[in-house]
Amino acid sequence: MQAVFDDYVAAAGLATELVNTAPGVWHGEDQLPDDATLAAFVGAYGLSGDGDLAAVHELRDRLRAVLDLRDEEAIEREASVLVGRGLGTVGLEPDERGRLQWIARPAADATLADRLALIGGVGVLGALRTLGPERFRDCASDTCSGVFIDTSRPGRRRYCMPDLCGNRANVAAYRARQKASGGLPDVQRQQRPPR
Ligand SMILES: [Zn+2]
Questions:
Q1: How far is the CA of 52 from the centre of ligand 1 (A)?
Q2: How far, in Å, from the CA of 194 to the mean position of ligand 1?
Q3: pTM to 2 decimals?
Q4: Measured in angstroms, how far is the CA atom of residue 180 from the centroid of ligand 1?
Q5: Nearest one of 12, 51, 13 to 32, comparing CA atoms
Q6: What is the pLDDT of residue 146?
Q7: Could you say which residues of the chain have pLDDT below 70?
Q8: How far is the CA of 25 from the centre of ligand 1 (A)?
Q9: Taking phi first (over 0 means left), then psi (-120 to 50 degrees means alpha), and beta for anything else, what does residue 115 get?
Q10: Ligand 1 centre and the CA of 82: distance in Å?
Q11: 24: CA distance to ligand 1 center in Å?
Q12: What pLDDT, on the 0 to 100 scale, is given for residue 171?
């Protein structure tokens, strides 16, 4: 995967997915516990793992700190540091359809963590420039500490992992309604905003 400035959606998606593999989001269970899972994760993005697992974990923490920011200037500043860490050259290159795109290439000696920093940083800056800092959000699930960059067109994404956290929240709301209709005060139903 290259860091294409106009395709910040894919890069921001990688940033979101990477930070949400952290043990803090999974009640202590790291989703990138070894070189094999790291290789599979980055392989899905066309990158190859080169065994610097600890460096990727450290980068993941740094990227999480950026996604926790809500101030435009701070996001810009910290994401630029990540871009600078992996950047080799910037230039125009033709895509598959022959149209010229701004491409950021990693430095020749960039490690996997450096390359992830470059791509994640480009994703953050692209989302910030196009969509604004309000698209950097906490997961709406009460039981999840994940974060995400909402790059959807309507901008109404609520969960860091929609399939997982969204379903979990729906199940919890359903159980609360069941419990409430069993004779207990229907506080949760009254207080919950319409979906
Ligand atoms: Zn979540």
A1: 27
A2: 20
A3: 0.85
A4: 25
A5: 51
A6: 97
A7: 51, 182-195
A8: 8
A9: alpha
A10: 24
A11: 11
A12: 76
